[in-house]
Specification:
Elements (H helix, E strand, L loop, with lengths): L23 H18 L2 H9 L4 H11 L5
């Protein structure tokens, strides 16, 4: 069996002991925001604003992502 990513199997593994809590209400809110942004990005208004150079919603999100990347 492979240990994955070069690790030693069964050494210092505490994954079974992890206690994770997830707020499902927050996930619903983020999902709705994501769907609205994706719908906006598919619209003609987004295309027009992008070509004019006046689009700010998606470009601000991209700038924020570049300034503080998330480590996964």
């Amino acid at each position: 069996m492979s240990a994955g990513f070069g690790g030693v199997p069964k050494e210092n593994r505490t994954g079974k002991d992890a206690n994770i809590t997830i707020n499902l209400d927050e996930i619903d809110i983020l999902t709705k925001k994501y769907k609205k942004i994706k719908k906006y990005m598919k619209s003609n208004i987004f295309y027009l604003k992008t070509t004019e150079g006046t689009e700010t919603i998606v470009s601000n999100l991209l700038k924020e992502l570049e300034e503080s990347p998330v480590d996964i």
